[in-house]
Amino acid sequence: MYPPHTFAANPLDRGEVERRDEGWIAAQAQLPQSQFLPFSNLNVLLGDDPAPTLGWLSPDGIPSDGLTSTPTMLGMMDGATHFAIEVNEDAAAFIEDWTDMRFVDCRAAGESLPGPEGGIVAQARAQLDWHRRHRFCSVCGQPTEKRRGGQMRFCPACKAQHFPRTDPVVIVVVEDKEGDRCLLGQSRGRLQRMRMYSALAGFMDQGEAIEEAVAREIMEEAGIEVKNVRYHSSQPWPFPSSLMIGCIAEAATTDINMDAEEMTDVQWFTRSEVLLALKGKSERLTVPAPLAIAHHLIKSWAMGE
Amino acid sequence: MYPPHTFAANPLDRGEVERRDEGWIAAQAQLPQSQFLPFSNLNVLLGDDPAPTLGWLSPDGIPSDGLTSTPTMLGMMDGATHFAIEVNEDAAAFIEDWTDMRFVDCRAAGESLPGPEGGIVAQARAQLDWHRRHRFCSVCGQPTEKRRGGQMRFCPACKAQHFPRTDPVVIVVVEDKEGDRCLLGQSRGRLQRMRMYSALAGFMDQGEAIEEAVAREIMEEAGIEVKNVRYHSSQPWPFPSSLMIGCIAEAATTDINMDAEEMTDVQWFTRSEVLLALKGKSERLTVPAPLAIAHHLIKSWAMGE
Known about the structure:
Largest sheet of chain A: 6 strands, mixed
Mean pLDDT of chain A: 95
Largest interface: A-B, 64 and 64 residues
Order of helices and strands of chain A: HEEEEEHEHHEEEEEHEHEEEHH
Helix content of chain A: 25-40%
Oligomer: homodimer
Shape of chain A: globular
Structural class of chain A: alpha+beta
Low-confidence stretches of chain A: none
């Protein structure tokens, strides 16, 4: 495995067997050694004494009327069951005041936390967000209930089971025929605001293999044909629930025909320019930080790995 | 790319740009050259004159009161826009009678059709099934509407957008330390009924990298630790909407500790036994047919590819 990406080193045992027992989960939530990670508006509680760390609380540290949903069971570690909880604004203010910790955006948390703790943030944020957006049954429209500690929602009305979704995204560094240049793009939105270029990416469609999605996305965004798609590594990306599937591909054509609705610019960049950019020393190219798999794809290509 | 798997050679241009224009889609659905692929209870219309082929109909071949949903736009090919439609039982009987074609289970269709036509079946079946199960908004419970020819559902009540889901599944052949044997399992359900052994597989969880999901699934189902996970190839599997991510991994341990709730048996099989089974000549081992990526993973390992 590639040295784990940010968000990809979750140490918890998710307890696939244990979580089938609703009574066991409820009992675990009452145990004094159980640990609770609070979230407020999808921001996670972090301490920083001395280094950034997750703000786990024990059951008696949680304002009993401050929860906005039932706890989500993340998994087991060091003999304790770990949960994520969502708190309302009053409870969040109380917790910050009482613990001297702070609720932090999860992307910033991923940048500052050690790998295993970032992995826990990824699982928790993706699950909490999914539950927020799936309170009703998509089959019949009636309210659903959290089951298995959050790994399923059940509809009492029509008996449908709904499972959390993970959306596969292909993200691709394309190298030119000579292997001297790579294709990077700036999409509208965040990359444009940051004047940054990154690997081209897009959600997979239904009925596609990974290699087909790569070819379609690169054709759509840049008008370039690709061949020899190679898998590189993958990264969970909990904004809200993507699986980034990193690939490197070879271009079969050269002339760029950009999708101007989605992209502000797509260019071929030389290896020397990319190497400068990875060190933050290029005047014309800025690339994503190591938080994102894009950085590592670009680096692997530039280093000839 | 691996020689395309069944369901993975869809030739349609999905028209990501064109389908953002609802008026364009509606106009295309009226054109005499547009093509419609009927489904009845998720079975697809096939002809067989002389070989199995998709049962495309032109607009005037469709009973106007027989549709159970608005057409789903699949994409463009040969100058025509192609749609999938769902028909009720009366219309299905009428179509079968009039065309001398038959509605066929999509797995059987995948086995008999040429690759590109199987790819169209995969896209169509996954999309139709998703729409059947997502008539209501999971955020607010109100009815949603099909948009972009079926690539989105929109909630007029709360303005939420919902996109078709694709569920990543890892499927893995694990080889032992010596490289002489591989780990195959028989899960409860279909494999058990068919007395078949296959590569171990499971849905990815939220907040996991592919390599992490592989390690978790093999540990859960077989109690085996793995290392050196290598990506092999991928296959869309529209039952209902999986993306099979095929991997080969090395075992770091030997003793099997099976999850008896999910599996009926897990065993190490020798290369010679597996090679016999791939030819259908083993008395103690049956493996999946070439329809499934599992066949190709097992074959790649056995052939030392």
